[in-house]
Specification:
Shape: globular
Largest sheet: 8 strands, mixed
CATH class of one domain: Alpha Beta
CATH superfamily of one domain: Vaccinia Virus protein VP39
Number of helices: 9
CATH architecture of one domain: 3-Layer(aba) Sandwich
Order of helices and strands: HEHEHEEHEHHEHHHEE
Radius of gyration: 19 Å
Distance between the termini: 30 Å
CATH topology of one domain: Rossmann fold
Oligomer: single chain
Length: 251
């Protein structure tokens, strides 16, 4: 679904054949697995994530695809198990928003990056510009409202405000920081019912919120959500316009 974002990160981090690349907060293995194709057999990519289950999933997918130049390790962004100046490039797709301490995490990423090399991070732009999120979230909020989060709490839209992540990177001593708005389409081959299941699979927190609802309310919520999804459906496929910020810089 987010392959265009991976391509944007690869371009902005100047990933090239033969590089050694770090993917921080790789989740179940992306964009590390895509990066492995760019760096080729003479390069390598290492994906890290603090959640062991995510690393297990990434390793299974790497094995299934027979990718020899990718490996995965459990590690948090602010405590990377690598020596100084280890990598030629670094990427992180939708990870920095959830770092416990984004400034410390970016400084640690900078530590293991080679001098004059680049890192590139992708974060979601405003929720109102991303129906992939809001068309479901607005329905859920009507049935299971939550109190507003503190301004800098870990959240998908923590760095939606232009300039916010750019300022953190500059404070971390990243040089030549550039922020750009990247628009793309999230294209999914699935029915609206299958997309409902996919969205639940993507978020344990969401599953917990819905599990607390009475059966009648859950059925009504699902009906309204499927109606919202149909605005972006054509046949057995969905397409959502999307916006992210790509923030990159150099050590």
């Amino acid at each position: 679904m987010f392959a265009p974002v991976s391509e944007a990160l690869i371009a902005d981090a100047e990933v090239a054949s033969g590089n050694s690349v770090l993917d921080v907060a790789t989740g179940p293995g992306e964009p590390a697995l895509r990066v492995s194709e760019t760096v080729g057999p003479k390069g390598e990519v290492i994906g890290t994530d603090p959640i062991p289950g995510m690393i297990d999933a990434a390793r299974r997918e790497s094995t299934r695809l027979s990718i020899p130049n990718a490996r995965f390790e459990v590690a948090s962004a602010d405590n990377l198990p690598f020596p100084d100046s280890r990598f030629d490039a670094e990427v992180s797709r939708f990870g920095v928003m959830f770092f416990p301490d984004p400034l410390a995490g970016i400084r640690e990423m900078l530590r293991v990056l080679k001098p004059d090399k680049k890192l590139a991070l992708a974060v979601w732009h405003f929720p109102d510009n991303n129906p992939f999120h809001y068309c479901f979230a607005r329905v859920v909020d009507r049935f299971a409202p939550e109190p507003p989060l503190p301004p800098d709490a870990p959240d998908a839209f923590r760095f939606a405000q232009p300039g916010k992540l750019k300022n953190v990177m500059a404070e971390a001593a990243v040089r030549d920081v550039i922020e750009r708005l990247f628009r793309f389409s999230i294209d999914i081959t699935a029915s609206v019912e299958e997309f409902w299941n996919l969205r639940l699979e993507m978020s344990e927190k969401l599953r917990q919120r819905l599990a607390a609802l009475p059966p009648d309310a859950l059925a009504d919520l699902k009906h309204q959500a499927l109606d919202a999804f149909r605005n972006y459906a054509t046949g057995n496929a969905l397409s959502f316009p999307a916006e992210v910020l790509i923030v990159s810089g150099r050590k």
